[in-house]
Amino acid sequence: MVFRRTVLSVARSDRLRSLVSGSGVTRGVVNRFVAGEDADSVVAAVRDLTGRGLLASIDHLGEDTLHPEQATGVTRGYVRLLERLAEEGLTPAAEVSVKPTAVGLGLGAEGESLAAANIARICAAARDAGTTVTVDMEAEDAVPATLRIVNGLRGDFPWLGCVLQSYLRRTEGDLAAMARPGARIRLCKGAYAPDPGSAHTDRRDVDAAYVRALRRLMTGPALPMVATHDPRLIEIAGTLAALAHRSTEEFEYQMLYGVRPDEQLRLVDLGARVRVYVPYGRDWYGYLARRLAERPANLAFAARSLVSR
Ligand code: FAD
Question: Where FAD is bound, by residue (predicted)?
């Protein structure tokens, strides 16, 4: 947790951002975690994944939306992408993941209603394309508004998914409120730097909270989406699903693009549903910083790519 907080706070430096984004030094690192900068690249990556029996959730990267027009632009990008996925025959295997701040949540008093309206447009386009949407969970201050938005849209789009983060103490209560029949819930550990007062700070506590939430999800009425690369949690998820008599259609594993690809295919071979979270777009900096903060090995990989230029 301390390592993550340090890397994330260093990554917030504007100087570092412009150095990294402008220099092209990190191309190898970016390519490992991001499927490209345009729709053609992401469509090709998703076609490759679905050809191997995997499902996909595509994130159009962007979390520094400063103007309503920018939020509208991101929304249009999602609508066009969903039309394209349908044309290419990639739905329903591919759905989309949306960050509320990318579609306006951070824009002052009107931000919540703007983000809700934009996510509703994306959901309508997904329905037309025959697929689904999952709303990502971001930093802690965005959690209450994000849950309100999802709850508000579930009436029209009952398949709208949301994310809960096991590092937050509040998640236990949120899970009880959100895991209703038909709901799709992605459970992850959490990738931001939450306030130690409201979050578990010890890895073991985050993992224990994950297992408690998983048990509740597997025995409850919602569709569990198990988002982790952690071998222990993946095994526990399989055991809990079996104990709850869930078929392989009644839960799914989710992993990030470029992370443990062999494990993704191993689970597919066992008959599991496995969805890969596929980010694409030019605004990859924040996403990449979180991947590097998660794991010292990822940071070492980035450092090697810097010195080997
Ligand atoms: P970690 O604690 O990072 O790792 C545990 C173990 O997993 C490691 O010890 C290792 O054995 C194995 N492992 C992990 N990474 C690797 C690797 N690169 N190579 C080999 N082994 C590895 N976070 C949010 O806050 N909001 C979201 O909306 C969100 N959406 C997500 C969607 C998906 C599909 C996924 C997979 C993650 C998402 N996350 C999200 C990120 C998540 O919160 C974690 O930060 C991230 O998944 C790392 O945690 P972990 O569970 O994989 O385990």
Answer: 137, 165, 189-191, 228-229
